[in-house]
Amino acid sequence: MALQCGIVGLPNVGKSTLFNCLSNAKAQAANFPFCTIEPNVGVITVPDERLIRLAEIDNPKRVVPTTIEIVDIAGLVKGASKGEGLGNKFLANIRNTNAIIHVLRCFENDNITHVDGSIDPVRDKGIIDTELQLKDLETIENRLAKTQKQAVVGGDKQAKRAVEILLQYKAVLEQGLSARTVELEKEDRKLVADLNLLTDKPVLYVCNVDEKSAVTGNEHTRAVEAAIADERAEMLIVAAATEADIAELDEYEERQMFLEEIGLKESGVARLIKAAYKLLDLQTFFTTGADESRAWTFRRGMKAPQTAGIIHTDFERGFIRAEVIKYDDYVALGSEKACRDQGKIGVEGKEYVVQDGDIMHFLFNV
């Protein structure tokens, strides 16, 4: 499933450095492959220790991790919402993504100039937020005129409710807040889903720090944390320049030693990929055996037939049942046969909601 996270940020915040680190297979936990679709889109493997453990147990002929797409989006200038600079391209690219990784500069370095002359990540955040909010406000106002006419002239109940929701969004955006701060019921959200508002997308703020701040952060990261407190957004601290140094090391063991020396258990890139995966509301189920151990991506809340269809459409069309082994049971007992002998294989029907980490075997007939 081709779900994308777009990386955004002002010039000289470390966005390109971070994207290049993500684009380097050596930065990943288990040296899984990386490929590029086009210059600014990377298909990046998701580090998952569970897949490594399953491969150790089954010793398969091949191991296939799950992936996400990361898009390095063109730069932004003030006035982007009015089409200045690369504004139109920037905004269109964001609209095509499912979530946003917003990189903020939280480090001091006199050799790297800042576009506004000083380091202030909260101000930088505000610049991009404002441009996205202005574009969303334009989208809302265009839709309102049409929907209000449907509500009044046609007496359409859904249109009336849509008008109420649009006015909620309008009020929030005019206050300089993002659309994601509006809490809607599932049915209401469906009424306006096609708006695809830029500031309604889930966002992860990545504070790019120097090496000494990689573990505990600094005054800039604390300022960002305070600024996003009411925004329903996540924050991650990463030292992009240090990650670039780690990515240059050839051996996995060398990279782990480097991380330990600076007080980290896991690279910032690995944490970022996992956070992006979660941001997209994705989870993982596994299939494993002598031929292949494989991680499969699914959306949280999907039922067994839908997840079967991710492997092959015939699996969903002819779904009979699913045999499910919990990851912890598989690791503890060491094989599918042992799980079967111990009664640890669940038989589930069409209503089963697949859980993160489930090891699945689908039975179907077409």
TrEMBL record:
<feature type="domain" description="OBG-type G">
    <location>
        <begin position="3"/>
        <end position="281"/>
    </location>
</feature>
<dbReference type="InterPro" id="IPR023192">
    <property type="entry name" value="TGS-like_dom_sf"/>
</dbReference>
<keyword id="KW-0547">Nucleotide-binding</keyword>
<dbReference type="InterPro" id="IPR012676">
    <property type="entry name" value="TGS-like"/>
</dbReference>
<dbReference type="InterPro" id="IPR013029">
    <property type="entry name" value="YchF_C"/>
</dbReference>
<dbReference type="GO" id="GO:0043023">
    <property type="term" value="F:ribosomal large subunit binding"/>
</dbReference>
<keyword id="KW-0067">ATP-binding</keyword>
<keyword id="KW-0460">Magnesium</keyword>
<comment type="function">
    <text>ATPase that binds to both the 70S ribosome and the 50S ribosomal subunit in a nucleotide-independent manner.</text>
</comment>
<protein>
    <recommendedName>
        <fullName>Ribosome-binding ATPase YchF</fullName>
    </recommendedName>
</protein>
<dbReference type="GO" id="GO:0046872">
    <property type="term" value="F:metal ion binding"/>
</dbReference>
<dbReference type="InterPro" id="IPR031167">
    <property type="entry name" value="G_OBG"/>
</dbReference>
<dbReference type="InterPro" id="IPR006073">
    <property type="entry name" value="GTP-bd"/>
</dbReference>
<dbReference type="InterPro" id="IPR027417">
    <property type="entry name" value="P-loop_NTPase"/>
</dbReference>
<dbReference type="InterPro" id="IPR004095">
    <property type="entry name" value="TGS"/>
</dbReference>
<dbReference type="GO" id="GO:0016887">
    <property type="term" value="F:ATP hydrolysis activity"/>
</dbReference>
<dbReference type="GO" id="GO:0005525">
    <property type="term" value="F:GTP binding"/>
</dbReference>
<comment type="similarity">
    <text>Belongs to the TRAFAC class OBG-HflX-like GTPase superfamily. OBG GTPase family. YchF/OLA1 subfamily.</text>
</comment>
<keyword id="KW-0479">Metal-binding</keyword>
<feature type="domain" description="TGS">
    <location>
        <begin position="281"/>
        <end position="364"/>
    </location>
</feature>
<dbReference type="InterPro" id="IPR041706">
    <property type="entry name" value="YchF_N"/>
</dbReference>
<dbReference type="Pfam" id="PF01926">
    <property type="entry name" value="MMR_HSR1"/>
</dbReference>
<dbReference type="GO" id="GO:0005524">
    <property type="term" value="F:ATP binding"/>
</dbReference>
<dbReference type="Pfam" id="PF06071">
    <property type="entry name" value="YchF-GTPase_C"/>
</dbReference>
<dbReference type="InterPro" id="IPR012675">
    <property type="entry name" value="Beta-grasp_dom_sf"/>
</dbReference>
<dbReference type="GO" id="GO:0005737">
    <property type="term" value="C:cytoplasm"/>
</dbReference>
<dbReference type="InterPro" id="IPR004396">
    <property type="entry name" value="ATPase_YchF/OLA1"/>
</dbReference>
<feature type="binding site">
    <location>
        <begin position="12"/>
        <end position="17"/>
    </location>
    <ligand>
        <name>ATP</name>
    </ligand>
</feature>
